[in-house]
Batch of 3 targets.
Target 1
Amino acid sequence: MTTHRLFPLAVLLLASCTGTDKADSGAADTDAAEESDADADTDADTDFDGVARTVAGTITWNVDFNATAEADGAEDCAYTRTYFGVEDNSAPWLCPGCDAVFLADAEITEGREACFDVVSTSDPADTEWLGYGGGVWYRGSGAWLSERGPATEADGVITVEQVVDEADSGGDYAFDIRGALTLGEQPGDPLAGWTPAETYACGWPKADPAAYEGDYVAAVGATLPDGVFHDVCEDAVRLHDFAGTYLVVEISAMDCPPCQDAASEEEAFIASMAEEGIAVHVVTMLAPSLSNTAGTPTTDELQEWIDAFDLASPVLADRVWGLSVYGQYAGDDYGYPTFFVVAPDLEIIDINVGFGSYDTFADVIRADAE
């Protein structure tokens, strides 16, 4: 089987960033100037008849240099980010442990030159994901949110903290991070517009199964994690609407040669299974490139992929779903393409990394259908 792998998995995430921010590396994250869905407008839709929660406040990174750095002239310093975020629970796989996730505008309002630029090699991101749940706060920029430290909520204020030692900071300094975010609300949509269409303009099936309440880890024997993604008709398409037939979910990138090989054989596989009386859908979850696996392809890029391989099957714009539900758990065993073979009841019956032919998937489906 041919697979395009990127080792270690961190490369999958950092490859789509413009640079590495030492100031927030390791346990504190990288401040990637990465643009995925995080470049979406954080203003609430005031025409929406609903309410979205908001957060507003500041978090300060106190930098403590070690004795060696201080002997070389470094001085302890601090920088502060100011945040305003609107609830966006449209991609729960980014933070399964969160009670709420916010897409936030972020700006360094104090200490940019005197502190941040001293310990960072890249520009700060101007949008970030923030979340909290279970007494923990989470933060991310473009990919899944990572756990940061304790969070306490009282009287509508979330108090957060995190301590990062030198080993985790990636430098000759440690961080003491503290802040407070005030909760509010405003007219808006907590799903940020990611509600499936009543019918799909591209003609996809609409099973309308019950709301998904499972976790967001893809494993054989588990239910396929659900999600909503744009298609070439610009509809928001729910993955679980393909329930009722066998499903092969292919996690692909546009410049991945084995992904292209799989796409070129996709329609013939579907037709051959139909001749055997077995209905199969192949759904492609597409990333723009191997250097931007956490990115989201445009409608034009979806059309380019469809035209290149004469596809009649769904091609959906991945929103870090593949990396989140499988890549971060599989680690170095993850690669492009990765396939989930799914039964009509949405149970994952096989996972394959790499592509040789569709014969393997056909055998799995036939065995399950017996």
Target 2
Amino acid sequence: MPFDEFSFVLRGRNRYKILNALMAEKLTSVQLSKMLNIPSSNIARNVVELREKNLIRPLTNARKFKFYAITAKGKRTLVEVERIKSMLES
């Protein structure tokens, strides 16, 4: 995995939380905001950034209630981030 993606996720605490939440289920921005207790403006910015890196993708084209899912690349990145974090913590 390129270091760029790993560092991108670690530099943004909310990006990591969003990827973790999307590992469990497909969610909308509103659901992410409520679940993670993060302002919707922060969620929106992070969603755009995660989409640009192809770590998440929209499941619908709807303007409102757009569901997002983590991509295979996002899953690989998250697994690697968690592996490195656990190594650093032990």
Target 3
Amino acid sequence: MTANELKQFLKQHRVPGRYYKIGGRHNHRICMEKTDSGWEVFFSDNRDKVGLSKYLDEASACNGMKHEMKKLMEQMHGMTWTE
């Protein structure tokens, strides 16, 4: 899965855009961004990266981000998608 495919997946599954940022950083959102050494998925809290996970490739980062978004949707809305 690519970052663009993940964006489409989340949109199709009605995950509110205010919960995440793909390809950068936005305060109080789960973020996925490319770095010099790979990819990172984290919750952005001001300048802190909370729950930081590092990945070597885009597909692994997308799967990590997808997993985090699934947990968030279960917590916030009591619903999610099946794998």
